[in-house]
Each structure stands twice: as C-alpha cells, then as structure tokens.
Design a protein that fits this description.
Helices cover 41% and strands 17% of the residues. It is of the alpha/beta class. The chain has a domain at 15-144 and 236-309: Alpha/Beta hydrolase fold, catalytic domain (Rossmann fold, 3-Layer(aba) Sandwich). Strands 1-2-4-3-5-6-7-8 form an 8-stranded mixed beta sheet, with helices on both faces. Helix 1 (56-61) links the parallel strand 3 and strand 4 (65-69).
C-alpha cells in the first residue's frame, strides 16, 4: 500500500485542554464543530492523542466533532504511582472514557481505538452502553484472544492468590527505573517504534517525540509497573475474549495486513467470537494503519459510519 503520510500532519491537531477526573489530570484535544456528532479517538500503548495526527482533520471535515483523549498513564495525562496499581487496567480506562463522554462531551459518542485503545473502546461499550453509539478497533489487542477458551466456574482461591503474588513480585523485581529511561533516551526506542510500522518511520521526529516524552517522565517506570500488574491480574470477564460477545453496539475491526505485533490470527479469532462484526483489511500496513495509511483508513471509517449510523 502506498504510504500516504502527510509531512505537515501535527500531533497538536486540535485545541488542547485539561480535564480533572478522580484526582487525575487528563489531557484532551478537540477539532470540529462542538455541535456535531461526537467521535472520540483512543490511542494505543505508549502513545497519546497526537497519534491521530493523520485522521482528526479529515474526520472533522466530514462533519464530526473529533476528540482525542490521553488515557491515564499515557501522553500528557497523569501517571499514577504504585499505590493505585489495582486500578490501572481497561476497566479504569473505560470509566475514564465514560466520564469524559458524560462530563466533557455531554452526549453519547462513537469510540475509535487503536490497539490498547480498541480494547478500551470495547470495554466502555460493554460496561456503559448508553454512552457509546458504535465501536471501532484498529486493531483490537488483548493477549486473551490468543489463549484457550474460558472455562465455566472460578479458579480456586489459592490459585488466584498465588498468581497475584507471583505477578506482583516479578513486576516489582524488574528494574524498570533503569530500563525505561535507558530505552527512552536510546536509539532502541526508534527500533521499537519501527516494529509497529511497515513503512520506514525512523527520522519522523514528531512520532519519536510523541512516544519519548511520556516515557521520559520520572513517574513512567512506576506507572508501567502498575499497569503491568493490573492488566495481568484483571478478571477474565474484563478480557476481550469475554467482552466481544457482550457488545450490543455495531463493531468494526480495521487490521493492517502486515501487522507484526498483533497478527491477523488475532483478528480471525475476533471474527469467530463475534460473527456479525464488520471487518476491513488494509494490505501492506503494519500495526498503526491509522497513521501509516491515514487517507485509506479515514475512507474506510467514514464509509462505515455513514452506512451504519446514517
């Protein structure tokens, strides 16, 4: 696929704002007529609302009021410390998105999420259906989609406690205070970003800053530790495998045909779990089709929204 990245696309694509929720400071951007239908963009792991730099303008021009929200722990939003580790998973982020729709947008929204953001969009749609009109995941990332099917019944309490202890100890032993700053200030970060793309992106300074700035904050290691523990210990009912069949709203999956991080097999598993979802494949794209092929991505999304919501 042709790389249609525009060189002038800026991560600061909208008017910037801060919103306070439950003691967290949350950064968000907006572009478009506030009276227009609302579309909320949710970034993936390690990114922020600026990652939608190639999408917000086109979506706003098509008649949407486009919001980009930095999830707690990412972008320019608060990075909570280890004392709040039990909360930093997709259930908390779904509550953040619902509160954003209620308090800031003040209307039901369409959610478009990239990778982890796709999981958050799905979670919010299931947990707070009255606030979500439709869900788009591009792609949907969750390790549960590669695991064995859920078994009925709960695990014995001793197994749950053992897993909690092991996960907590292992995550606390990892020297993230050394690893995270080292990666954030080294060329290894550019190599990691490149893994998510099919087209060359090393040298894209805006993209590098978008990922590097949050990782260089002093609270980044403790936040990553908190997030890792919480995501590993969340209940099975909060995983994508359990949530997909429960979603009542229209669902679109957009996948990059050359995604090396969340391969097509995961998308096929999603389609087996929910046969009525809509599916679009962008050949030649990696893990970030919205950024790598912005024009094609925007076209797929807008056509689906018109067909689905009218």
């Amino acid at each position: 696929m042709h790389n249609d990245n525009q060189p002038d696309a800026s991560p600061d694509w909208g008017s910037a704002h801060q919103w306070s929720w439950q003691g967290f400071s949350c950064h968000w951007q907006r572009q478009g007529d506030p009276a227009a239908p609302a579309l909320v963009l949710l970034h993936g792991f390690g990114a922020g609302s600026g990652h939608w730099r190639r999408n917000a303008g086109a979506l706003a021009a098509a008649g949407w009021c486009v919001y980009g929200l930095d999830l707690i722990g990412f972008g320019a939003s608060s990075q909570p410390g280890p004392r709040r580790w039990r909360r930093l998973d997709n259930r908390l982020w779904a509550r953040q998105v619902q509160a954003f729709a209620e308090q800031v947008v003040q209307a039901p929204v369409v959610l478009v999420g990239h990778s982890l953001g796709g999981l958050v969009a799905l979670s919010c749609g299931v947990f707070f259906p009255h606030w979500v009109r439709a869900v788009v995941a591009a792609p949907l990332a969750d390790p549960s989609l590669l695991s064995a099917p859920l078994r009925p019944g709960r695990r014995p309490p001793w197994r749950r406690r053992l897993k909690q202890v092991l996960v907590t100890v292992l995550c606390r032993l990892l020297p993230l205070e050394l690893i995270v700053p080292l990666l954030a200030h080294s060329p290894l970060l550019d190599l990691g970003i490149q893994l998510a793309y099919r087209q060359p992106v090393i040298g894209d300074r805006d993209l590098h800053r978008l990922i590097a700035r949050p990782a260089r904050r002093p609270t980044a290691p403790s936040t990553l530790r908190a997030m890792s523990i919480a995501m590993a210990l969340r209940p099975a009912a909060a995983t994508a495998r359990a949530l997909l069949p429960r979603l009542g709203q229209p669902l679109l999956l957009i996948w990059g045909g050359a995604d090396r991080l969340v391969p097509l097999e995961v998308g096929e598993q999603c389609r087996r779990l929910r046969q009525d979802l809509d599916w679009s494949l962008l050949p030649g794209c990696g893990h970030c089709p919205h950024d790598e092929a912005g024009e094609a991505f925007n076209g797929v999304l807008l056509r689906w929204l018109t067909r689905t919501l009218g």
